[in-house]
Amino acid sequence: MNESQEDIDILIMEFLENKLSEKELRHFFEWVCADKKNEKYFFDLKAIHDSRSNFSVDINESWCRLEIKLQQKQEDIQKKKRFIIRCISSVAAIFIFLVGLSWYFVSNGFGIGEPETYSYFTGGAPGEVRLPDGTCIKLGANTSISYTSEYGVKKRAVILDGEGFFDVAKDEQKPFVVISGDQCISVLGTKFNVRSYPSDTVFITTLLEGSVKFVASNFESGKVLRPGEQLKYNRSNTQVEISVVDTDEVVSWLNNYYTFQPQSLKEILARMSHVYDVTFECLDTTIVNKSFRGTFYQGQDLSDFLDVIGLATNLKYEKQDGKIVLYKE
């Protein structure tokens, strides 16, 4: 069925106002999932809707000024990022190094009694940190990063717990090192993404530009990645898997989206558990390994996310003992 732009706008507005019937709701999600442009159009408009408490439901009046409002939204996002940076820049704390990292610091001449360590934590919203050498790090939700006052003297080393996108300033004399758990990533100047939350079994490194060398404490030699490659390191069995991936999908979170093309429900829930800072448990062992495709907006409510999962899988959900359990009736 061919629908006019006005029909689509009304459908979106009624979804945002919780006015759709179950049949209309299924039609809405079918439209959203039919094309990436549909997904982007919906999430852009939802972002505007969520950011404006006096949002008008008059379609003809509201959407004719869409371009202006989208620009305003981008400006609001930039202001929020600057506010996060100002807030986290005031935090400085002494950090006790993890025992699992001692092998690296000792072998590279780092003492245990360094004068000071600067630590930053994003909380529920992404943030950004710029290091003294110009290296820019964009941090995902509930992510912490730290570096010592010796940064840039002999080496450039940071400790990451969570997800970060690194745009590293080039310095051939001082390699840049990311340490997370028992893994170590060494580069000279490049762009790459690391996802390594402490609760994750699999740590993921994705290279966009340049080259990186991946080393773990139990490796005899490192693994070198080329642009477009992704390395998955399983901490439980120390297995490494390298594959070619769509890097735009991996770093979609930088543009306020989480894109899955396609991935298993287990992987999607694991990814989004860090975004919402909750634990998901799926009791259906069959559907949890099935693959799904979709895009979620960074500011999307947890209930909205669960409703989408429910419509795609026919799973129900409820809160139990501090976690969200998904099940089939």
UniProtKB/TrEMBL annotation:
InterPro entries: FecR (IPR006860), FecR_C (IPR032508), Ferrdict_sens_TM (IPR012373). The chain crosses the membrane at residues 83-106. Keywords: Membrane, Transmembrane, Transmembrane helix. The keyword Metal-binding does not apply. Residues 122-213 form the FecR protein domain. The keyword Transmembrane helix applies. It comes from the Bacteria. Pfam families: FecR, FecR_C. GO terms for molecular function: sigma factor antagonist activity. Residues 257-325 form the Protein FecR C-terminal domain. This is Anti-sigma factor. It comes from Coprobacter secundus subsp. similis.
